[in-house]
Write a structure and sequence with these properties.
7% strand, 3-stranded antiparallel β-sheet, single chain, mainly alpha, 177 residues, 2 domains
Length: 177
């Protein structure tokens, strides 16, 4: 199995990503060298996120996306709960309450929300692809988008809300609406 995986890898892409990641770590190290946290604090933190991201990539590469489609509503509710939790326990940075603190880590649920939204909205549209021909047929998909978008606007994060709008219209276009 490992031999088959290694045979299918795109080595040019892998090398390009490795060079970009290494360059990013060098830039972070250079830019934060004089900070009070020590010279390797931020590069090490970024390395942890690179490892987590790589593990998630490997997991999702070999996950049957049909499994995700079966849990569309669960994932959609998790997405909404994450976005709503920011309004309750979120950490304010530069006037926007967009971050959640988890010990030494902070994360922005709206970033995960984009990915979850694409997964859930794709499943949602796949069941309605034949019923998207009239304007009235678009009201339910637009309502599907509106709920997370309102939660994001309340943070306030207009940029991410506009990204949700672009994702929605792009996916509706690709679905033939």
């Amino acid at each position: 199995m490992l031999r088959r995986i290694l045979k299918r890898l795109d080595y040019v892409l892998l090398l390009t990503v490795a060079v970009i990641l290494a360059g990013g770590l060098l830039i972070i190290a250079s830019a934060t060298h004089g900070s009070g946290n020590g010279p390797y604090y931020f590069p090490l933190r970024q390395t942890v996120w690179i490892i987590i991201g790589t593990a998630l990539l490997a997991f999702f590469l070999y996950l049957d996306y049909g499994v995700l489609a079966r849990y569309e509503w669960h994932l959609y509710v998790i997405n909404l709960l994450m976005l709503a939790s920011v309004l309750v326990v979120g950490h304010s940075v530069l006037g926007g309450q967009r971050w959640i603190n988890l010990g030494p880590f902070q994360f922005q649920p709206s970033e995960f929300a984009k990915v979850l939204y694409i997964i859930t909205f794709a499943s949602f549209l796949s069941r309605r692809v034949d019923n998207l021909k009239r304007f009235g047929d678009l009201l339910v998909p637009l309502a599907y988008m509106l709920v997370p978008m309102v939660l994001i606007v309340k943070q306030p994060d207009l940029g991410t809300a506009l990204v949700f709008l672009a994702i929605t219209f792009g996916m509706l276009f690709m679905a033939g609406a």
